[in-house]
Amino acid sequence: MPSDLLYGHDGVEGLVAVEVVEKRFPGSAVELFFRRGEETVRESAAFEPYLWAAEPVLRDCPVPFRRRDLAGSAALNVLARFATWRDAHKARSWLARATGFSPSAPNAPYLFLTDAVQQYLTLSGRVLFRGLPFDSLRRMQVDIECATTDGYEFCNPEREGDRILAIAVGDSTGRIEVLSGAERSEKELLTRFVEIVSDRDPDVIEGHNIFNFDLPYLTERAARLGVRLGIGRDGSVPRRRASRLSVGERTISYERFDVFGRHVVDTLFLVHAYDIAHRSLDGFGLKQVAAHFGISPPNRRYLDPSRITSEFRAHPDRVLEYVRDDVIETRELSRLLSPSGFIQAGMLPMSYQNTAVRGHATKIDALMIRAYLQRETALPVPSLSRGFAGGYTDVFVEGIVENVHHCDVRSLYPSLMLVHRIAPRSDELGVFLKLLDALRTLRIDAKRRLRENPKPAAANALDALQGAFKILINSFYGYLGFQQGRFNDFDAAERVTELGRSLLQDMIGWLTRHGARPVEMDTDGIYFVPPAEPARGLDSFRRAFAASLPEGIEIEFDGEYRSMYSYKMKNYALLGQDGEMILKGAALKSRGLEPFQRDFLRKLIRLKLEGRASEIAALRDAFARAIREREWPVERLAKTETLQDSPSTYTAKVGKGNRGRNAAYELALRSEREYRAGDQLSYYVTGDRKSVAVYRHARLVGEWDPKHRDENVAYYLAKLDALYKKFAGEDAQGELEL
């Protein structure tokens, strides 16, 4: 396969950022930033923006353009190039009016890439970071701590009295500078922060929740104090706009910030993407995630976030240690989770920042479009969306099962597509399967080299490489059923799932015939209990199972567990040989549960997995006693919710009957603070009856008075009892007195 399909056809190295502007040239231009040794060099070049269209719709276009006719039989057979971005946007607007199709309509008879950087990289065939290792990327981490006026739960940059207390700035070299509000005015803090960014000249600015907290706060405080937040490579201030990120079934509203010549990466988004793939995190906060990955610095300083202001008044040094440790954890978290996006940026015609926020199917689309543009071939109009049957999932056994093994079909759907040559009908050049085959070959080679080179530095790089390939490989099936995909094909997607279901059913049949006991089937993996005494041993049994599969289909035996709690479809718990417990599925690790419920459920499930179910009733009684005697801080009972809409949007939806009332939104409306989408509120429930309207009895955690406790004991006991009855099952003993 020509390497240009994956890496672009221009071999220029060292490109670290691209910005598209309409300066310096009569038309439009690009500003290019290259890494040359230790220096970052800026170059300018002319660039003509473009769009694709079906030949008939361009005939009367009033905007001047240069025309290139494209080969092939697809509908979008003309490439129109314009002198300026203004002309390109005028042409797009004219096409929308002339055809009646909006630019975002999948079946529009024209296509305009709104991302200017993607336009340039797609046409030029260049990619970022070619020839550069991840460690050469200049990464800067930012974290701030702020004062909150007494009586409020969260700081607000627009509130009189709230301000920045500390700014910590770290980078990938290990340098950290902590700016203290005890030594400098807030204006001096912001001025020095801008100086640090300019002096260190990072390629990337990183932070945990940087889009919805740090950057909006810094921007607002700088504006109020008359400080120009000129952190762009040209001294410009960040551009901001509302945006949304879809990660699996989650949608996150955020404020996108674009910094000229730099990329902004939110490690919170990387964590969400990691969890969608692994489903192993109990929360997404920096401290929780750092503990999960074991990257917290020694003697890490922990502080109650709600008491930062009072702590700073009494012991500012503790807050400075705390914010310093935050940037260390952010740096290490990025070091773990960013390489995949870095590697993808070396293949995709996208900015590094966008590899973290664009969907995987969108990335396949970008590779396909680049290949067709390079080959001057027309683009198709996407197929209309339709439903079809999905993958095969099933539960054969519920409850506790011992000695459970797991086997995984390696890249099931991609393998089926390659074996059966399933590709989009509109792919006249055969690019789809060439890309898929190349990525699989490269991943196999990376995994081989990973096995042969266990040295930590090389192993980390190779693991990131094969992981990046895996993400893209597993996106090819989803692309077939992607409504916005230029080369989508719902018939092909349906054929893939049909073959997958048939293969997995055959595998279940083989296991059953050979004395194994299937427990659960989850799309491309099977949990099963092997035969008590395999005829020639477990290894022989596994080899025979693998040999029973069709050519091109491979399985990997990747787990052996002491026990498994099979609750229901896609919801189960596993106890490893080392005692580690893994929970899968929303029913067992719902983030909608209060912290005490999550803790109780984890301990209950562990008792079941360890064969100590007789102790569950005592566990329940201990939790009930703690609730009755008010032993816990209110945080253990409180729920934290993120506002997906603004309070005004919520009010409108409630008024139209489009949604019910919600405690977090009602508290936001009653608060003096101007809450926005993306803000979080923590609340608990008051009253004395187990059944109450939560939105009427909710109070902010910040309003809780430990000397006059008013949490609803009956309500929380009822929640404990319901969880106990739901999961204790046959092991339930006695009644809990409410």
Largest β-sheet summary: 7 strands, antiparallel
User: What is the name of the CATH topology of the largest domain?
Assistant: Nucleotidyltransferase, domain 5
CATH superfamily annotation of the largest domain: Ribonuclease H-like superfamily/Ribonuclease H
SS class: alpha+beta
Return Rg in Å: 28 Å
Which of globular, elongated, flat, extended, rod-shaped describes the shape? globular
Largest sheet strand order: 15-17-18-16-19-20-21
The percent range for strand residues is 15-25%
The helix fraction, in percent, is 25-40%
Average of per-residue pLDDT values:
91
Describe this entry's structure for a reader:
With 738 residues, this protein is of the alpha+beta class. It has four domains: 4-130, DNA Polymerase, chain B, domain 1 (DNA Polymerase, Chain A, domain 1, 2-Layer Sandwich), CATH 3.30.342.10; 134-343, 2-Layer Sandwich (Nucleotidyltransferase, domain 5); 393-423 and 489-586, Palm domain of DNA polymerase (Alpha-Beta Complex), CATH 3.90.1600; 590-731, Topoisomerase I, Chain A, domain 4 (Orthogonal Bundle). The protein has a seven-stranded antiparallel sheet with strand order 15-17-18-16-19-20-21. A hairpin with a 2-residue loop joins strand 17 (517-522) and strand 18 (525-529).
